[in-house]
Amino acid sequence: MSSEEKTWQISSSSVPPPPSSHFVGKRDDIIRRGRVTKLVNGCRDVLVVYHHGEFHAMDMRCYHAGGALELGDIEEFNGRVCIVCPWHKYKITLVEGEGLYQAVDNPTVKPLITHWRSKGVKQRVHKVTEVNEDIYVTLNDSRETIESDYYQTDTYRSNLRIQKVS
Ligand code: FES
Q1: Is the sign of the CA dihedral 29, 16, 42, 91 positive or negative?
Q2: Ligand 1 neighbour 151 (Cβ under 6 A)
Q3: For the ranges 124-128, 136-140, 154-158, which has the lowest average pLDDT?
Q4: CA separation, residue 33 to residues 25, 40, 94 (Å)
Q5: CA-nearest residue, atom 4 of ligand 1
Q6: pLDDT tens digits for 112-126?
Q7: How many angstroms is it from 68 CA to the middle of ligand 1?
Q8: Is the pLDDT of residue 110 over 60?
């Protein structure tokens, strides 16, 4: 998926869902719940969020340490809508998956002067399409490694299972 491509679209009812997309739920059900998590295509745990008339999808576990993003609040920082990871409060833009942070100009000068900055894309986001009130996710198959990818690996999943058992 290129950075210019929109991640959310409504298709006309006469157009079939995009090839290689996966049904994740009924529109009204996701709106009512606000967010859902799904194992998409048997390989990727994805969080689908409804916010202010749009759907967004991203890897379910936070790129920092695997935090449960489905429990995160949605807030705006510097005009950009983010999900805030409940574990260590990292901010991730819903549209691009960028990690945002507040940089301090000069820590010795009080009061501190801060600016919002981007760490770049850290969380893999996926495309969401609505067709006939059904919601589909198309996985972002970009070959570029994104930090959240680690929390989708078999290695991570088996470590998680071991931790739950012990
Ligand atoms: S795991 Fe998400 S902020 Fe640390």
Answers
A1: negative
A2: no
A3: 154-158
A4: 11, 18, 17
A5: 88
A6: 999 999 999 999 999
A7: 8
A8: yes
Element (H, E) at 30: helix 27-33
What is the Å distance from ligand 1's center to 90 Cα? 6
Which are the contacts of 109, defined by CB distance < 8 A and separation ≥ 6?
none
Task: Band the pLDDT of 4: cuts 50, 70, 90.
Answer: low
**Domains of the chain as residue ranges with CATH:** 8-165 (2.102.10.10)
Contact by Cβ (8 Å): 60, 69: yes
How many residues are present in the chain? 166
Ligand 1 centre to CA of 127 (Å) is 23
Buried-exposed string 101-113: b where 16+ CB fall within 10 A, e elsewhere: eeeeeeeeeeeee
